Amino acid sequence: MMKICVLLVDDEVDFVEPLAERLATRGFAVEKAFCGEEALDKVRAGSIDVVILDILMPGMDGVATLHKIKEIDPLVEVLMLTGRGTVQTAVEAMRGGAFDFMLKPADIKDLVGKVTIAFKRKSEQEQRILNAEIHHTLLAGFVEGGEARHGRPRPDAAGDGQAGFTYPTGPAGTGPNWNEIERKMIMDALIKTKGRRNAAAQILGWGRSTLWRKMKQHGLD
């Protein structure tokens, strides 16, 4: 089972380091960033599931960083950390796409619970997008291949025996093999982009983290 990848973003090293250790001992994969720009680089790398983001940071503050993160990958969930004097800012951040906020210092049990729920929501959103992509791909294939029954190939109109669209199926009577369909979609996108993962993610309509996760699941990383 893959670990949930959490990015801790705070300019206070003495806060980040021990919290990173506590999360790691609870089974999370943890990345660290000490400013907004560094956090954006980590998100661009494509493996982040949930960001724990401090609101008050020098330079690019937490709210500005949140907006940039959502531009890079809208599916990455962001949990804001705030002091008592910035609660209203945290509420406004939630309107801007943050998953939730917590007061510092956060109770580790509550923090773990919120991160887990945030990851669940991200996974559900990814699955809905994937299902829509598969549905679109299958419909497009049916139109191209002219066969809507069980994904079987048919000779083309010229009768030369060239097959139309097919999709992988499971044992007789079990219908489409969705895992193989997904794997083939990823491989096709990587081939078309000559292995450029960011470009492949755009073709598939996924966020970077979604493509990275799916590649690992299918042994394509």
Structure description:
Helices cover 51% and strands 11% of the residues. It is elongated, with a radius of gyration of 21 Å. Helix 2 packs parallel to helix 3 (62-72), helix 6 crosses helix 7 and helix 7 (197-204) crosses helix 8. It is built from 8 helices and 5 strands, in the order E-H-E-H-E-H-E-H-E-H-H-H-H. The chain has a 5-stranded parallel beta sheet, sandwiched between helices. Helix 4 (87-95) links the parallel strand 4 (77-82) and strand 5 (100-103). Residues 142-166 have low confidence and may be disordered. The chain has 2 domains: 5-121, Rossmann fold (3-Layer(aba) Sandwich); 125-217, Arc Repressor Mutant, subunit A, CATH 1.10.10.60. The longest helix has 38 residues, at 108-145. With 221 residues, it is α/β, with parallel strands linked by helices.
Tally of distinct domains: 2
Low-confidence stretches: 142-166
Rg, Cα atoms, Å: 21 Å
End-to-end separation: 15 Å
- The percent of residues in helical segments reads 40-55%
Largest sheet: 5 strands, parallel
Report the portion of residues in β strands: 5-15%
Shape: elongated
- CATH topology name of the largest domain, in short, is Rossmann fold
The strands making up the biggest β-sheet line up spatially as 2-1-3-4-5
Number of helices: 8
| Order of SSEs | EHEHEHEHEHHHH
- Main CATH class of the largest domain: Alpha Beta
CATH superfamily of the largest domain: Response regulator
Reported CATH architecture of the largest domain: 3-Layer(aba) Sandwich
- Class from secondary-structure proportions: alpha/beta
Mean pLDDT: 80
